[in-house]
Write a structure and sequence with these properties.
Blueprint lengths: L20 E2 L2 E2 L14 E4 L41 H14 L25 E4 L6 H15 L9 H6 L1 E6 L2 E4 L5 E4 L9 E5 L1 H4 L4 H4 L38 E3 L11 H10 L9 H13 L10 H7 L4 E3 L6 H9 L14 H9 L13 H14 L9 H8 L2
Antiparallel strand pairs: 1-2, 3-7, 4-8, 5-6, 5-8, 6-7, 9-10
Helix pairs in contact: 9-10, 9-12
């Protein structure tokens, strides 16, 4: 994804398919990381520490069934969260309780404005402060990593990583991932000799795994990116068990700069004034909440970021169009002609939705190209007025209704 931030070598891997595990082994193979984003994960290597043959591991709060969770594929960070996920909070508490090592090792969501892509930014990563140079820490790390990546009760290697929803770990110049299931040399800028980095899948982040609940859950695909070159929607408490549809180009852009949690500066101050909240010049949690509410009220993807579509509604003078500057009649003609009277519904996005919003003569701030609450309510009002079933769904009949009004 071409997002408005760069990637780092700390959390890079190519997208991998989910691998379904059974008691007899792997039912499908996941592709190995490849390309520039996998540069930090090199050739196969020995483990980062000598592994005990019979690790103690961590006690599960409930007895998992015989079925194993899918091995996590790579799900890179594309959204921004202000708090750590439940799975990270629970994993941290159990690890510190079990091993009594690592000090406080706080769990927190990292600033989204610094560095490249990192699951720390969407609340799915934790750094467990175990130092390779400390004998007791090294012993705890060896036990945990052996239990995590070695054969589990069913004999499947990496079983506990699957049951916890762990994507990958990094420690002492080595990395292990659920989509490769072997130790590799890690050559990122931080050798991770002071801590174990742990990244979770979205199932792991929500603690929707057999380790925590005793049952296997459907794959959680995480938040979706609506518009290309913009972030995904902010994480919620609701799992997404269907793959995301492809992101589309936003009908509008802005001359103002992208910013999100952890950012700051003059542009953030402009946004805070427009949002009528205290002007701190810092993109803090209060600003994120105000942006999310603005996005909800203006039919925008709820990214929580000052992305280009949001700026276009918040500061209309900065808006530029990526589509024709239609009149309502021209938008309707395009929709019924070139676009073939497309079927649209809540959460649809793109040029056709923008044409609908123009044809409905919505205010400029609501012509976002995203089918949200405002657009749906306007469609329902038109359906009610025409005696149609009020569904908010736009089809050829509704396009004809607009044409004949």
């Amino acid at each position: 994804m071409n997002l408005p931030f760069s990637r780092t070598l700390c959390v890079c891997a190519a997208a991998a398919t989910v691998v379904v595990m059974t008691a007899t082994g792997v039912s499908a193979a996941a592709p190995s990381p490849s390309g520039a984003e996998a540069a930090a994960f090199a050739e196969a290597a020995s483990p980062p520490v000598p592994m005990p043959a019979n690790p103690q591991g961590m006690p599960a709060p409930t007895r998992p069934g015989n079925a194993l969770d899918a091995f996590a594929g790579y799900q890179g960070q594309s959204a921004c969260a202000s708090t750590p996920s439940p799975g990270i909070v629970q994993l941290r508490a159990l690890a510190l309780q079990t091993y009594a090592r690592g000090g406080t090792s706080p769990a927190y969501a990292r600033s989204c404005a610094s560095g490249g892509t990192s699951e720390h930014k969407d609340g799915r990563a934790w750094d467990w402060m175990l130092s390779y140079s400390n004998l007791a820490d090294r012993k705890a790390a060896a036990d945990f990593l052996s239990w995590l990546t070695g054969p589990g009760p069913s004999g499947v290697r990496g079983e506990m990583a699957a049951r916890l929803g762990i994507m990958y770990v990094i420690f002492n110049h080595r990395s292990w991932s659920s989509y490769n299931r072997e130790w590799s040399t890690y050559t990122g800028y931080d050798p991770h000799t002071s801590h174990i980095h742990i990244s979770l899948s979205w199932n792991g982040a929500r603690a929707h795994t057999s380790f925590w609940t005793g049952k296997v859950w459907a794959t959680d695909y995480g938040p979706c990116q609506v518009f290309t070159s913009q972030p995904a929607v902010a994480p919620t408490n609701v799992a997404r068990t269907q793959p995301c549809v492809g992101a589309v180009m936003s009908p509008r852009r802005s001359t103002l700069p992208f910013s999100w949690l952890g950012g700051g500066g003059d542009a953030v101050a402009v946004a805070q004034r427009s949002l009528r909240i205290p002007v701190t010049r810092l993109f803090d949690v209060a600003t994120q909440r105000a942006v999310l509410q603005f996005q909800r009220n203006h039919d925008l993807p709820r990214t929580g970021a000052l992305d280009k579509p949001t700026w276009a509604s918040l500061q209309p003078a900065s808006a530029r169009l990526n589509v024709p500057d239609w009149t309502p009649r021209e938008a309707l003609a395009w929709a019924q002609g070139d676009a073939g009277s497309p079927t649209l519904h809540r959460a649809s996005a793109g040029k056709s939705v923008y044409a609908l919003q123009v044809a409905l003569e919505l205010p400029d701030q609501w012509r976002t190209g995203f089918f949200g609450r405002r657009t749906a309510n306007t469609v329902i009002a038109r359906q009610n007025a025409a005696g149609q079933t009020a569904t908010s769904r736009v089809d050829s009949e509704f396009w004809s209704l607009l044409a004949n009004r």
